[in-house]
Structures are given as C-alpha cells and as structure tokens.
Design brief:
By secondary structure, this protein is of the alpha/beta class. It has three helices and three strands; from the N terminus they run βαβαβα. It has a three-stranded parallel sheet, with helices on one face.
Length: 88
C-alpha cells in the first residue's frame, strides 16, 4: 500500500515542491497533483516537482475528455522518463 499527500490548494510550484519535500521527510510515499486554476497542467507540475524532490512518487490526475488520449500518454511518458520512473 502507498500513501500520497495531496496539497489542499496548490498556488505555485514552490508550494508543491515544499509539500513533496515534507512528504519525503515524513516518510510518505509521494504526492498527488491535480489541476487547479493556478496550476492547470498536472503533468507539467509533476515534472517540475519530480525534478526538485528526489525519492518521492508523483501522481498526476489528468482529465482525458478534451484532449486525445495519445497526446496525454506521450506527455505522461516524458514525465515518467524525466522523473526516473516515479510517475503514477
């Protein structure tokens, strides 16, 4: 079983990175990222967090209704490679 920390109201990438670092220090497995008004692209935010914080899983919730699934899969594959396989 894995435990993920979800930031309640992400306003910046710095805030997300601080949450991910706090999760790592607390022994939580990773963070869950969702799109919000201030950070509309969960996969881009996931890449940024993974680049700044090592050893945490990064889960991204992505809506698939408005975009082609292959486009989303390509973005997710790039983020997964850039994060060293830590994308969920």
């Amino acid at each position: 079983m894995r435990f993920l920390l979800e930031h309640p109201d992400p306003r910046s990438l710095d805030g997300l990175a601080r949450s991910a670092e706090a999760a790592r220090r607390a022994g939580i497995d990773g963070v869950l990222l969702r799109s919000s008004a201030s950070l509309p692209a969960a996969l881009v935010a996931a890449a940024a967090v993974a680049a700044r914080v090592d050893e945490v899983l990064v889960a991204a919730e992505v809506e698939v209704g408005h975009r082609h699934p292959v486009e989303i899969a390509e973005e997710a594959a790039v983020v997964d490679l850039a994060s060293g396989g830590r994308l969920v």
